[in-house]
Every structure is written in structure tokens, then in C-alpha cells.
Amino acid sequence: MSRVLLGLLLLAACERPFVDVSQPDVVILSPDLAEVLQEPRFVLKVRAGSFRNIETVAVNGVVMEYSSPDRSWSVPIIARRGLNQLIIEATDIEGVSKLDTFYALHLPSQFVANSPVLPAGRGGHTTTRTWNQDLLVIGGASRVGGPAESTLYVMAYPGGTFTASTVRLLEARTGHTATLLADGRVLIMGGSRSDNVTRVADLLEAPEVYDPVAQTFTRWTVLGEPIRRTLHTAVYRRTSDGEFVDLYGGLGDTRYGNDPYLGVRQDLRTFQVLQDTLVALNSLATAPYPEEAIYGHTTNRIQVGPYYVFGSHFEPNFQREASFSLDFGAAQGLQLDDAPPLHVPRTRHAAAPLLSNLLLITGGRQHSPTDIVATAELFSQAAGGVFRISGRSPTWPRFGHTATAIEPGEVLIIGGFGPGGTARAASEFFVVLP
Questions:
Q1: pLDDT tens digits for 383-396?
Q2: Which of 41, 244, 288, 348 lies 20 to 30 angstroms, CA to CA, from 99?
């Protein structure tokens, strides 16, 4: 190619108009998509911006109407029940466009106070569904800072009421976990002798198992470093290699050995269930350490896939939030990923799966037992976000309670401590309306 021809080609290229590829930005003006929508009909209103004029804005392929007074774009929407994906495309006058994905969660719901009542108020207890769907409320305390109880309350489901069993825990405990095993027995791990733990000696090391058929509690032994924690969470895994329980966080002994120290634990201990014995597969020194040292958090699996951890650690002058997922089945081993934070930081709340893709988070407290959080939120695994449930507050403020999935669209919230520090006997349902 001659230099003259090359120069002509370069000159022709320079004469072409230059178009900046900067893409338009879209901001949702209304409604607040961070809130659960109780009604299906709403007007979606957005603003699209760029240094060039915007030509069109469309949502799911439908062109929105422009309003010059406030420079907004709007269109009426009829949401279907559940999660609605809104793909918004803004295009400027030069044809440069950008796609943004938003989610609207339409889920009419309410809290229902007409629910079963415990024989006595309990907080810091556990609630477990047996294979025949009965509910077991184990242990807990009757007031904030009070001594642990050894009670077992049983409710036959459906349509039953709670009754006090004549069988009791071998050791009164609160802040423990209760895990349903493959054979139908319930494994109770950790906990303390008091709702207000002040020393390592308050912690319970020996696990025990409840057999719903024989209606007996039996003490198990632990091979390896003991449990020594309370207000932790437990994940039960059954694989081709056996049954495993993973304990994360909690208040407990962070040193072991001859110099015990009561602190907030960060380790993830794994125990194998083997012939009525718990075999510790790791120690405080060899266990994985997730992102935060935390207690009073929740760890739940919605359906399949990872477990989601939500909680906050409060100190007098600061707070730390923990929101992440734990994937035990990842090909490269245990995998941790970020999860969105809750709108309202909280600890000692309760969480339970709802429908096939949601997690209900309800209640809890903040810096002190008087700072009760009387709100609920929904985490959507598909949207990767958390939605506030505004206008649908729990009937009673509470923390240290439990939340148990009863039906796909129904969660039973049991017990917990109220504003005066006394444990509640009342329960309530969170119900997704038809």
C-alpha cells in the first residue's frame, strides 16, 4: 500500500464522528423495590441519565412514557406473585444503550397471632420438627439472664397444642442447637447453664440425644476437643462418607488448654456422628475460620446449594455485620462468598425458609436486651438481595425466639424474650396470603 493511499484512509477515518461509548445510568424513583410489595399493581418510575439525551427507556421490552417536568420515565406494571425480574434498557440519541436488572418481590403476607401457646415462656430454646412432623421445644430460659431450663414441650402437628413432657434434659441448657439426625433422633449440642454467660464454666460440653420413639435423653461423648460454645449454629450434612455436624461461631472458649478464655468464636468445627459418639475432625487450631467472629446469628439453607449466615456483633461503640454463604459441596472444598447485609442489623433473631427461594428473618435485638428489632425481612436467593417487609410487623417484639417452616408459605415463630426481659409463651404464624 502506498503512503498516499494510507494517508487518505487515515484521513477518512478521522472524518468519522467520534461517539463516546459511555452508557446511560438508570435510577429507580418509585416504588421502593427494596420493600416487599403487598399489591400487584404499581407504576414503575425511573430516571435515566447520560451526558447525551436519552431517546428511549424500556422495561422487559415495553417502552416507558417520558415526563418532561421531572425528567422521568414511567409505565404501569402488574406483578405476578413472587419474584419479578425487571430488565430496563436505556438508549441515548447515539444508540448507545445499557441493560440494568432489578427485582420486585410481590408477596402479600401477614403475621397471625392465633397460634399455639407454650406451657411457659421460653427464650434461647430450640424448636425441631421430627420425622412425623411433631414440634419439639427444648430447653431455654424463662427470663433474660436467668438460669437454663430442662423442659421439653411437644406439639403434635397439625392442629395440636404444646404440652409439657415428663421427660427432661439431662442438663438444663439454653443457647444450644438441636439437630435432627437421619435415624429420627435429635442431637443437642452446646449451650450454657444461664442465659447470661460470664465464664467458660457456664458452658456445657457433653452433648445429649433425644429419642422421640423411646422418649429418652442419652448423653453422648466427644472424641477430640469439646464443644464449649453457646449461641452458635449447627449445619447437618449427610453424605456418602457419613453424618456430619458443623458448628460455627458462638460465645465460648477461644483458647482451650490450661488457660480458657470466654470470647466470641470464629472457628468452624466439624464433628462426625459415629456409633452414638461425636468424633471431632478438626480442632480450634486446624478448623476453618469464616469472615467474622459472631454469635446469636442464623445459618440456613433455603433449598439446595449454600448455607446463608446473617447476623451482627454489637459492642458498646461499634458493630460488625456478617452476611455470607458457606458452600460445603464446592469442588474446591469449603467455599465462602459474600451475601447482602440485612437492612436492619440484628442478633439473636430467627430465620426459616419460606416457599422455594426465600428466607424469612424476623425479630432480634441490637446493643442491649431493650433494643429489640420489631421488623422482618426476606432474603431472595435468586435476586441475591434482601427485602424489607414494611407494614407487616410481628405481633410481639422478641429476640431469642425460633422460626420453623411448617408449610411452604407458613412459618411458626415461637417464644423469645420481650421488652421486659420475660420470655414469651405466645407464638405467631407468618403466612403468605393466597
A1: 999 999 998 889 99
A2: 41
Structural domain boundaries, residue 23: 18-106
Out of 106, 127, 158, pick the residue that ends a domain.
106
Pick from 62, 79, 106: which residue ends a domain? 106
pLDDT digits 0-9 by tens, 26-55: 999 999 999 999 999 999 999 998 888 999
The CATH number linked to 38 is 2.60.40.10
Q: Are residues 403 and 357 in the same domain?
A: yes
Q: Which of 44, 94, 85 is nearest to 65 (CA)?
A: 44
Separation of alpha carbons 18 and 217, rounded Å: 78
- The letter for the amino acid at 245 is V
For residue 2, is pLDDT > 50? no
| Cβ contact 47:26 at 8 Å | yes
Distance CA 68, CA 62 (A): 19
Q: How far apart are the first and last CA of the chain?
A: 74
Which residue would you say has higher pLDDT here, 31 or 331? 31
Q: Would the pTM of this model clear 0.85, i.e. be above it?
A: yes
